[in-house]
Amino acid sequence: MSLTAGTALAQDITIGLSLPETIEGFDFVNGMYRTFAQEVEANSDLTVNIVYGGALGSAGDRLGQMRRGVIQMSDGADGNYASIYPDIQVLNMPFLFPSEAVAWAVLDGPFGDAMAEDIREKTGIRVLGWWESGGFKHFSANRAIDTPADMAGLKMRVLGPLATIPVEAMGASASPVAFGELYTSLRTGVVDGQDNSVSVFNLINLYEVQSHLMLSGHTYAFGPFGISDSYFQSLSEANQKVILDAAEAAIAFNRKTSRAVEAAAIAFAEEQGVEVVELSDDARAAFREVMQPAAAAWLKDNIDRPELIEEVQAAVDAAR
Predict the structure, then answer these.
(1) Residue 275: what pLDDT?
(2) CATH number assigned to the domain comprising residue 36
(3) Residue partners of 165: CB distance under 8 A and separation at least 6
(4) How far apart are CA 140 and CA 210, in angstroms?
(5) How far is CA 112 from each of CA 37, 129, 277, 316, rounded to the nearest angstrom?
(6) Tens of pLDDT, residues 212-242
(7) Residue 11 CB coordination number (10 Å)
(8) Rounded to an integer, what is the distance from CA 143 to the centroid of its chain?
């Protein structure tokens, strides 16, 4: 179930992934797709070809290939889909989800189903479910960030308006440092802090250049588990059911693994001497009060259906 670049792609389902085939701590992505492939091949006459390491192009390139039917699946996450479906950004509002369980309930419920159908209609990509891309993002720096006021004056590496605008609302300055330059930029003081999942924090050894990790959980990172809708529609009813069942098994694997990986990643960061701080409910409320309105104001002018802001908040309230 793997090929290197340049090998003929003559399989029924080709999946293009970003990560190399073997990478420690990220089985919640690669293992999810391997689970999907195993389930499909065990229960149908379909075969699955997984191409690792970005060999089929960037995430954006692969989304385009899915839409054109060149490949059938890819691991694009929320930020990638925003380029072809801006409304998905409503799910990136800071402090929208109080927990992973609430996020799953919203994504698996009527709100997520309606968005999935809208994505299918507007992009030609069928969303089979929603996977967790490492869980929540958290702030780190070389000093404690316990309140919004503690962010004042810091130079923070964040990407995109829904991260930049809320950070600037707290008095920090935002800098879009490239991911490959993040470690060096933190070490040399080009920026003071950043936000990522704990898995990514450890992946690039940020525990060497950041002394404090605040488990702010301000943004939930996720991805649509997408497949080319034209391909899906071309399958027999029996094979469509196999695909749906395999996707359900893959997402269950993803979420369970992602939760275990994050717990291990937090423990590892602490072992490296990082001071890991869990925000109190009052502190989270203080951050939300500053960050969420700033993000919502931007969303109203930059998504196709601003009414989704109130709709997703209502879905969250119902899922609590």
Answers:
(1) 98
(2) 3.40.190.170
(3) 294, 295, 297, 298
(4) 7
(5) 24, 9, 31, 11
(6) 999 999 999 999 999 999 999 999 999 999 9
(7) 17
(8) 26
Question: Number of H helices and number of E strands within the chain?
Answer: 12, 10
Whole-angstrom distance, CA of residue 18 vs CA of residue 139:
24
The answer for residues whose C-beta is within 8 angstroms of residue 178's C-beta and 6 or more apart is none
Q: Look up residue 303 and give its DSSP letter.
A: S
Q: Indicate the SS3 state at residue 301.
A: helix
Exposed, middle or buried: residue 12 (CB in 10 Å: 0-12, 13-18, 19+)?
middle
- The CB density around residue 93, as the number of other CB atoms within 10 Å, is 26
What's the total number of domains in the chain?
Answer: 1
**Residue ranges in 73-160 assigned as alpha helix (H):** 78-82, 100-108, 110-123
Q: Are 29 and 253 in contact (CB under 8 A)?
A: no
The answer to whether the beta carbons of residues 201 and 269 sit under 8 Å apart is: yes
Cα–Cα distance, 46 to 55 (Å, whole number): 22
Q: Is the pLDDT of residue 9 over 80?
A: no
Residues counted in the chain: 320
Which residue is associated with the tokens 């898995």? Answer: 199
Q: What is the rounded distance in angstroms from the CA atom of residue 164 to the CA atom of residue 173?
A: 8
Residue with tokens 């920090």: 172
Residue among 211, 200, 189 nearest 272 (CA): 211
Whether the pLDDT of residue 11 is over 70: the answer is: no
Spatial CA neighbour of 123 closest among 75, 82, 77: 82
Q: Are 208 and 201 in contact (CB under 8 A)?
A: no
Question: What domain range is 27 assigned to?
Answer: 2-319
